[in-house]
Amino acid sequence: MKTAFRKAIHQLDVLLAPLVLATLREQNAFNTYLFHALFKDREELKLHLCDPQQQVTVGMFRDFVIYHLEKGYTFVSVPDVLKGLEPDKKYLMITFDDGYYNNHRALPILEEFQVPATFFVSVNHVLQEKAFWWDVAYREGKKAGKTDGEILAEKNMLLSKTDDEVERYLEAEYGERAFQPVSDTDRPMTADELRKFSQHPLVHIGNHTCDHAVLPNYSEEGVERQIVEAQVKLERIIGYRPLSIAYPCGDYTNHTLEVCRREGIALGITVHHAKNFYSSLHDRNSLLTLNRFTIWGTEELKSQCDFYRSDYHILEKMRNLYHRIRPQHQYQKNSQRIV
Ligand SMILES: [Zn+2]
Question: Domain named NodB homology: which ranges (predicted)?
Fold first, then answer.
């Protein structure tokens, strides 16, 4: 399907979502949501300190929590999910990826509403106090006068490489110092901050590999090292081995799942936009490849949440039909991939 046509049908689905929700009873499910950096406000985004990514502000995050509490959602943590959820309720898990220091801004909101959240941490960034490469590419690219399109194309190219290759590329382009964070907005937590953060009763920590490794770009040994060493290093900081992992960019292989099982990681999460139904929580493989929605600060919050909660999407029906006719066809990936 052509991109413009697909976008138009998606917009129609977004418009129809409140009507669908008013007509068809929302199916009970376990929905998980992905956040990255949490910006103080829209003004902070204009400083170009880091890749704006989803552009979610603290205020928007608070509204997100209120919206779902009003819709009757129960907020859960990884241990809650592993203990077992009830089939007749709607559940939600908040997740933040990467380990940004700015994630501390979520704490007052978690406390205000007494809801837990899981933070997936790229541990070498914490230990080495090193900026995330996509932030380096954005910040330095902007300074060098690159357009947003050029920066995005470069980011998409780098997502097919290992962390070493990415660093070599960016260091050659901008120098080694470019990996020094420039503010509290773009820096990862320090190990001490992460230790203290992890002790908060509403905070749960998960594995996001050692070096934010996009795992299919690595050899089997590389995948093993990225996951196992992250478990060990995180345990040294937070005092326990995580039971969960968020695969960087949502990408994994069958071997990745084997390594996770061996390491006692029972819950794995991707960036495939879909609900998780109760049946999938009893299947070991499904539990290691859970779906997750992404919220965008550039779009209206209620429309996005209504759309994700809605169980009837015309675009999905058309895709199913299209795939049946042309089973070999691969859909073009979104131009902006999630890190
Ligand atoms: Zn990430």
Answer: 90-339
Distance 18 CA to ligand 1 centre (A): 31
Distance in angstroms (rounded) separating the CA atoms of residues 338 and 205: 20
Q: Residues 147-163: pLDDT tens digits?
A: 999 999 999 999 999 99
The alpha carbon of 3 and the centre of ligand 1 are apart by a number of angstroms equal to 26
Q: What is the pLDDT of residues 310-338, one digit of tens each?
A: 998 888 888 888 777 665 433 333 446 77
Q: Domain residues of the chain, as ranges?
A: 27-130+181-309
- CATH superfamily label, 27-130+181-309: Glycoside hydrolase/deacetylase (3.20.20.370)
Dist. CA 20–CA 97, nearest whole Å: 31
Q: Ligand 1 centroid vs 23 CA: distance in angstroms?
A: 37
Ligand 1 centroid–CA 247 distance in Å is: 7
